[in-house]
Amino acid sequence: QVCAQLCRRPCYCPWVPPRCPRGSPLVLDGCGCCKICARRLGEPCDFLHVCDQSQGLVCDYSSASAGTAGTCNFEDDEEGCEVNGRLYRDGEVFQPSCKIQCHCLDGGFTCIPLCQEDVRLPTPDCPFPRRVEIPGKCCPEWICEAQDQQLLRDARAAAGAASPLLRFPCQEWGTEWSACSATCGLGLATRVSNQNRYCRLETQRRLCLLRPCPALPAAFPA
After folding, report:
1. Which sign does the torsion angle of CA 171, 175, 181, 183 carry?
2. Claim: this prediction has a pTM higher than 0.70
3. Which Gene Ontology molecular function entries are recorded, alphabetically (predicted)?
4. Domains of the chain by range and CATH?
5. If DSSP states are collapsed to H, E and C, what string results for 185-218?
6. Of 77, 17, 78, 26, nearest to 52 (Cα)?
7. Distance in angstroms (rounded) separating the CA atoms of residues 34 and 48
8. 122 vs 58, 126, 177, CA distance in Å?
9. Mean of per-residue pLDDT scores for the chain
10. In this predicted model, what pLDDT tens digit does every residue of 2-50 receive, in sequence order?
C-alpha cells in the first residue's frame, strides 16, 4: 500500500537524465522508474533516493527519528575511505592515479609512490640531466640537455690534455669521506666520486683506523 502511494504508474521521468557529481553513478530510483543520482556516503536517503549499492552503501535509519530520512552508510557499519568523490571499502587497495597506490584502512588511507624518485648527478656524458614528462608514459624520465657548442669546442681543444681513455676532459666531482665504520681497529670509509680513469661515478672505499682496540684479557690457565 505504501509502495502504491510513492510509486506512480506509468512512469513520468525528465527527458534528460540528471548530471551527477563525480563518484555518483546514475541508478534507478526506489520505484524502479526514473534514473537518479545515487546517494553517497553520509548523504540523506529514503525509499526513492537510494544509496550507491556498488560502493556497498545502504540507507541507515538507525539514527533517524520517525518520519525522517536516513543516511547512506556502509553495511554492517563497515568503515571506508572517500577519495576524489569515490568510496573505497576498508582494506581495499586502489590507485587514484598511475603515480601512486593507496590502501584504505580504518577510515583513512596511506599511499606510496609508484614512480622512482631517484636523483641523477651530472656526468661528463650527461652534464645537464633534467626530469621531464614523456607523452604516453606515466612516470617522468631523465633526459640529457644538449651541451653548449662552446663547451664542445673546449672539450675538443683539451682532448690532448685529457686521459687517453676519454674523449673529453673530466671535471672532478666527489662527496666527502664518510665516518669510519669501526670505532676501534681497522674499518672502512666510503665516498662517491668520479676520480678514476674512466671519469665515472663510483663508490670508493679506503681503510681507516680511529684508534687501536683495547687488548683482550688473558685467558685463565686450564
Report:
1. positive
2. no
3. heparin binding; integrin binding
4. 1-76 (4.10.40.20), 81-113 (2.10.70), 118-147 (no CATH), 173-211 (2.20.100.10)
5. CEEEEEEEECCCCCCCCEEEEEEEECCCCCCCCC
6. 26
7. 10
8. 57, 6, 19
9. 78
10. 444 578 778 888 888 889 988 889 999 988 889 999 999 889 999 889 9
